[in-house]
Design goal:
The protein is α+β, with helices and mostly antiparallel strands and 458 residues long. The chain has two domains: 224 residues, Vaccinia Virus protein VP39 (Rossmann fold, 3-Layer(aba) Sandwich), CATH 3.40.50; 123 residues, no CATH class. Helix content is 30%, strand content 27%. It has twelve helices and 19 strands. Helix 5 links the parallel strand 4 and strand 5. The longest helix is centred in the C-terminal third of the chain and has 58 residues.
Length: 458
Amino acid sequence: MKYDFDLAWSEDNSMTLLLRQIQPGGTVLEFGTATGYMTRYLKEQLHCRVYGVEIDPEAATQAAGYVEDMIVGDIDALAWAQRWQDVRFDYILFADVLEHLRDPWKVLREAAALLQTDGVMLTSIPNISHNAVIMELLTGRFEYRKLGLLDDTHLRFFTRDSVKGLLRQAGLQPYLWLDTRAKAQDTELQAQPDVFSQAFRTLLDSRPDGEVYQFVTASRKEQAASEESEDYLQAAYLHTNLLQVYWPTPKGFAENASLSLPLDPRPEFVSYRLALPALQQGALRLDPGSKPARIEFKALRLFGEDRLVQQWTAATDFAGLRIAGGAVLLPKSNDGCYAVFALHNDPQLLLENVNWELISEGEAITLEMVLKVDTAAPSRSLEPVQDYFTNALQAREAALAQAYQHLSLLAQEKSSLEEQKQSLEEQKQSLEELLQGMEASHSWKLTRPLRTFGSWLR
């Protein structure tokens, strides 16, 4: 099926960026549910009431189990606007959908009418002015693909300015603008910048939106938004190794309670800083990458305003930092750094002994992380990981051998005790039979008065 994906929470893509804007328990209208990969998350993880529209009957059947109501049909036909005219939605979601429509301007305008007063319109739209497309045009090509910037089902194409116009015509004002980005050679077009002159490559590099793959926006109705509230945030590049920090919520860790930063590929220690919400309890979760890698922590520091509150370093033996999954602890380096090996794209560590009580109410909280990430470690040498598993396997085998030996001794002891028990039972039975024979004998009965008299004398 063409539009059937898994949610890749370990990277910033249009789907994860949009879902992070949705608070639990809301009422959501999702256009283009496909097989329900986002719908399921909305229902099962965020506990939202979801309404869906999907043109593919087979895909809609798969997504139907996660919605309150599903319309199978063409979004441009506006049947949904009539059916749900009395429903007001907290969130309306167009994830890479508007570019497939004949009249996205009318659809977005009709959808905006179904928003709550402070409801949020969430959209992601590909950028037709990406450098890869420009390179294609300059080489005389404009070839449609199955997916991506030139998806063969795209009917409309947008740049940043035309996305703004689309939202404005629907009476919407973006308050959050995010970008997903990709180098020209990393897109499905696989453009080759090297075939162009250095002067032209420099021109492409200078274009503000030249590497923007998708425009991701969160908007409200103009009367519920203000010009000053618009916030243009830099998003990580697609396929980039990410550092992600989660803070606790009443329902545990969630994607919409996290922040991420792209990791610097330089083979040296780099400092990263993240501003956290005003927290007062619970552990922090650190996902120190989204690719297999060797990762070394030199320091973790927690600041309230600009005041150092707490730190985890070699001097504190990194007490409170532990692996929660997806990684193995490696021997410390010569400088005492906390070293782990990420086994896959979702390593998880917990920072457990955070002293929130040392942070005053209203203080700005910042977490600083100084770490070095070596993504070449798996391809260059697996010796650290092999050593870890070899040592772990040897330790486990030694423990099992010791346990087996102990069980063998216990089995022997049990067998000896059972033999002693059997012998004692046989002796008891012999004595009982002897006593019964004596009591039944003629001489025993004749001497009974003497035994009684002797007992009386004693």
